[in-house]
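RECORD TYPE: protein structure
NAME: TonB-dependent receptor
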Amino acid sequence: MIKMIAALPVASVLAVAAGTLAPAYAQEAAPAPAAQDAPQSGGIQDIVVTAQRRSENVQKVPIAISAFTNDALQERAVQSVAALSGLAPNVTFDAGTPFSGSSSVLAAYVRGIGSNDFAFNIDPGVGVYLDGVYLARSVGANQELGDVERIEVLKGPQGTLFGRNTIGGAISIVTHDPGDTFRFIGDATVGSYKLFQARGTADIPIADTLSSSVSFSVKTRDGYFKRRSFPGAQPGTYDVEPSTAYAGAGYENTGIGREGGEDAWSLRTKLRWEPSDAVRVTLTGDYSSSKQEQLPNTLLATTPNVAGGAFDVFAGSYNCAIAGQSTGCGNGPPSFAYAYRRAGRTGLFDLPAIFGVNADANPDNNRLPYDNRFVTGDKDSSYATGLNFARMQSYGGAGTIEYDLSDSLTLKSITSYRELHWKVGMDNDGSPLNMLQISFEMNQKQFSQEFQLLGKALDDRLKYVLGAYYFKESGNLHDYVTFAEGLLQVDGNNILSTKNGALFGQLDFKPIDLIGITVGARYTKEKKAFEGFQSDRNGLTYKILNGFGVPPCASLTPISDDCRVAAGFPNADAPLQLYPGGVNRKTFDNFSPKIGVQFYPTDDFMAYASWSKGYKTGGWTTRLSNPLPDAPSFDEEKATTWEIGFKSKLLNRRLQLNFAAFTTNYKGIQLNFQQGVSPTIQNAGDARIKGFEAEAVFAPVRAFTLTSSVGYIDAKYTDVLPGAVVAPSVIQGGVFVGAELPKTPHWKVNVSPRIELDVGSSGAKLIMLADWTYTSRMRNDTEGTFLLDRKASNVVNANVTLRLPDDRYSVTVGGTNIFDERFLTTGQAQIAGGQFYGTYNRPAEWYARLGVKF
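PREDICTED:
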């Protein structure tokens, strides 16, 4: 089918799309009639969005938007931001990034621009906004969608209206506002893997001018991924240190069990006060707590057996060491270093030596080698026994004040403070050994203040938004990484802070009914600071020098300053610290404009063209495995996007068809590269991204609606910086001019038919819904590791809902991924560390939901 579509001209693609999508426009749960006098003739209901900071029909907004109402999210069993990935064209949203260990982390890409990391040093390329408040971290950005009124996915740079880091687009989550009458809506769901979820929102009027709402959510389910006992690993068969022998952020859930389970709850309250017709005040507070098992992790292959080659660094050195080989396998010193081990807390030599423990030629009598014996061949199981937890607490408050200075001028203030506390630990080696054990602790807080002046003039022909924005963030990310039974032990805190100020504005002028003009701009100034304390707690570099007989390092108790200098460690006061001492600082500034023109030949048709720029600041690489004299940094990235499109309603509002074509010059791309055992952020070079998307809703009669979308992207490097070139090999596609960008499939197609039938004369309704999403192959990592590629996939979800009269009760039975299509969503090629590993999408699951409304 895809080859057939690719061969069609654009007009034909639009015709196909007309029978397929549902973007911003088609996501109503029950399509309402377009006119009061034709309730049975079909029609498409309008959706009101705030993409331009004012309420307006999505069909009148000259931006490519996919918007989803609460009813549409409920019908399609969309419970998190990542689950929108299959419904919106040219986006890839994944729950989790490589070695993040948690599904609360969001990897968001829009039209080829995004971020596939959770580290504090890199900002998202797609901004996530909760009731207008920017969420600075990808940790916690995969929001559970409980009391959501609407989600808007805006594509392309959005800096003239939204805050930081919207170079690729923005995800705007709008939660429910309190009503002026009592109302409760809720649901309870059970399903696969002992799923239980309960959600509810109550509107509680307090006084004539004061109303409130309270929303809650609780969710528990078992993990679908099983940890199995390795055959022959009974007590006494082999020796291995417990996970607690090494420094970590925590030591929960070790041993045999499951991965992917969760226990979470959240609470949100809102107060809305309207003391007069001119003043509106909204206060919001929210708290969420999540306890998860680690993101399910499958060992795909190991790489320790290429003696003397690039693969033979850590796992190979360990295998050589336990066999008593000090030369010809790892070149000696790394293997010799196993005569000295430490746990990273009390001294250099506090773990037992393991060099030569298997020298009697019995590979299993003392220490198990690390190799493909631990590859289970099963997507949903491993032999891991190490760390297995993710804990997150997120909370914050916001106050929004709107003051109508006149009938045509409103001053708006949004003030917010938020905190995030996160701990995660995962066993990525898939074995009972401590070959790659990772844990992190992040603590973050942010404050933002935004002022907007929203006005209109000239008989509403001129509409404008002028604004000022201030953002302050601070926090830390502490890394604990154990490689190859302690050969290398990374342990250290990284402290970062940001101050950002911006002025922005956008004018929309319609001099005549036929023509509209948009002019906007944003000026940004940002200051960042970073101090790195990451250290090699095992002193591996010193041991290598000692093994080679370097004179200053003949003795390591204590480490002499001459030995420190010979080893290249930059800090005399901390000889194990990989970073130089002191605070690193950077300042960035940018001016990003936007120009657009619109054409309105009829009330139901708008064509538009726009040119805009987007921007994201740079920073520092915070993951090191070798000492460096300076903290390595990366520069800002920029995008310039041209877009043309149209939005239309045809056939007496029975067909809604929207189309956009775009091309983007993407410069200074910030990507995660694997350098040895260190996943580092650096600028890759430049790329050209071009494509189109078509979204359609077809509602010929009230009982039937067909929504669909088609998205196409061609995203390739046009220039690659010398340090970012990766040559193609038998294991990786490489990074070079003409290579593909990660997380960017060429094609995505969604088809969603919906049937609503009356049940007798009682007023009850039967609703049948299905979603089919085709996604073509894509890279999951920068280097294009073949084992990690996401194969082309066809995912089908379906459900049936019975709504009883008056909509007070509803019962839904459905399934997600009902044909059990499995593919990798994230992973890492930790070649130097000894393994390829990844996370597969969730298997087929069923659910049953009872909804109430009164």
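COMMENT: The CA atoms of residues 615 and 649 lie 34 Å apart.
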